[in-house]
Amino acid sequence: MNFRMFFNGWGVLPACLIILFSLGLPVVGYTAEPGTFSGTWVANGSRIEFPFSSDREIYTFKLSGHVSLQTKLGGKKDYWSDCIGFSDTVDGAVARCVWKDLSGSKIYISFKSKPLHEGGQVVGTIVGGSDRLEGLSGDLSFTWDSFSIQEDSGQSMIMGQTLDLHGTYQLP
């Protein structure tokens, strides 16, 4: 059977489909949306001390607050934050945070720093997002402009405000 007879008997559309499938389907690529952002973050919450040793202060903490961006991150400027973390005056601090916008989309961030204090530098990695921010990645950093711990009726409260919050992101 020659090639011309094969296609004449089948018609043009099936012949084109056979050729496409034998060569492979074309891949459609989407370009990622890269961007930068900057702003401020005000947070407060509580901490629970863990008695470890007399020369080392260890505690867990929970912070909530408002992130106000000057430039958009994923199309939004306002996020509300919830964070939990662990701090050690020798090894530093780690935290996991969720920033949520009014539509419910979330940004997941992993932070680390030297021991928490005013003027302390914090770096973070955006490890994902939800809804329209799914697959979000990036990096950010800030300095604690003010950071205080207050004791009131046996409760430890943490308050902080950032200076120079900025970062880069990529949204697939």
Describe this structure in words.
The chain has one domain (33-171): AOC barrel-like (Beta Barrel), CATH 2.40.350. Strand 6 and strand 7 form a beta hairpin. The protein has helices spanning 3-10, 12-23; strands at residues 33-53, 56-73, 76-88, 92-100, 106-113, 121-129, 137-152, 155-171. Mean pLDDT is 85; it is low at 25-30. The protein is elongated, with a radius of gyration of 26 Å. The chain is built from 2 helices and 8 strands. The protein has an 8-stranded antiparallel beta barrel with strand order 1-2-3-4-5-6-7-8. With 172 residues, it is mostly beta strands.
Task: List the main descriptive attributes of the protein structure presented here.
single chain, 172 residues, mainly beta, AOC barrel-like, 8-stranded antiparallel β-barrel, 2 helices, elongated
Strand order of the largest sheet: 1-2-3-4-5-6-7-8
As residue ranges, the low-confidence spans are 25-30
CATH topology grouping: AOC barrel-like
What CATH architecture would you give? Beta Barrel
> What do we call the CATH homologous superfamily?
SO1590-like
User: The biggest beta sheet, please?
Assistant: 8 strands, antiparallel, barrel
How much of the sequence lies in strands comes to: over 45%
Count, helices: 2
Order of helices and strands: HHEEEEEEEE
* CA-CA gap between termini: 49 Å
Query: What's the gyration radius in Å?
Result: 26 Å
